[in-house]
Each structure stands twice: as structure tokens, then as C-alpha cells.
Amino acid sequence: MATQTTSYRNYMAQSVASMTPGEQIVLLFRHAAGKIAKAIQCIEKKDVNGAHNAIVSAKNIYAYLSDSLDLRYEISMNLFSLYEYAQDRLTEANIRKDPAILEQVLKMTRSFCETWEQTTAAVAKSSQ
């Protein structure tokens, strides 16, 4: 079993390494959306620890995205503000265990993901 786990991790690391930066961002947003959706399910099932862990994972993704921005550009400053807002809302949702707040952040996360998917596709198309 350990060999399968190691092989899978190596495969995933190689897959991510071969992605463009845009594809990596899309993957991060998909993962964040999945964690937020899991947190909502955990709250509905009264699994406080599971909800906490899923919310922290999503918040960590947003923190990574914020830390990766080049703040010399106005668009980066705007994205930084949006990502910080998402982190603040995730913190509030974690404290209150409020699925309504999580639904709001999930909608925003899916919107970010769609935007990055479109941007990544447009860049790929223009570079052909």
C-alpha cells in the first residue's frame, strides 16, 4: 500500500509540475471549492472537526494564492483584496459554523475558477 501511495504522490507531483501557472491556479480553486463544499456537508452532519479542517484547508489555499501575487500590479492588488475577503469570510464561517457564509464563498470561489479557466483557455489559444 505504501508503494501505491508513493507512486500516486509522484504521479500527482509530475502532473502539477507539467501544468501551466494558469492550470495550477484553476486546480487550486477547484480544490478550494471542494473543501468548502465538504465543510458545508460536515456542518450539516454536525461534524465540527471535519468542518474546521475543510475550512482551514480552503483558507490555506487562499493564503497561498495571496502570497503568490506580484503586488507591483494593480490587478494583483485587486485580487489580493478579494482573496483576503474570502479568507476573512472563511474565518467567520469557521467560528460560527455557518453554511450560508460558506455558500457565499463557494459561489465566489467557483466564479474565480471559471474566470481562470476562461483566461487560461484564451492564453492557450492565442499562443497556438
Mind telling me the CATH superfamily name of the domain at 28-116? Flagellar protein FliS
Radius of gyration: 16 Å
Ends apart, CA distance between termini: 42 Å
Q: At the first level of CATH, what is the class of the domain at 28-116? A: Mainly Alpha
Shape: globular
Query: Per CATH, which architecture of the domain at 28-116?
Result: Up-down Bundle
Topology as H/E string?
HHHHH
Number of beta strands: 0
- Given as residue ranges, the uncertain stretches (5+ residues, pLDDT < 50) are none
**Main sheet?**
none
Q: Which bin fits the share of residues in helices?
A: over 70%
Mean pLDDT: 92
Structural class: mainly alpha
Q: What percentage of amino acids are in beta strands? A: under 5%
- Classify the fold: give the CATH topology of the domain at 28-116: Four Helix Bundle (Hemerythrin (Met), subunit A)
**Helical region count?**
5
Describe this structure in words.
With 128 residues, the protein is mostly helical. The chain has a domain at 28-116: Up-down Bundle (Four Helix Bundle (Hemerythrin (Met), subunit A)), CATH 1.20.120. Helices cover 87% and strands 0% of the residues. It contains five helices and no strands. It has helices spanning 2-17, 21-44, 48-67, 74-96, 99-126. Helix 2 packs antiparallel against helix 3, helix 2 packs antiparallel against helix 5 (99-126) and helix 4 packs antiparallel against helix 5 (99-126).
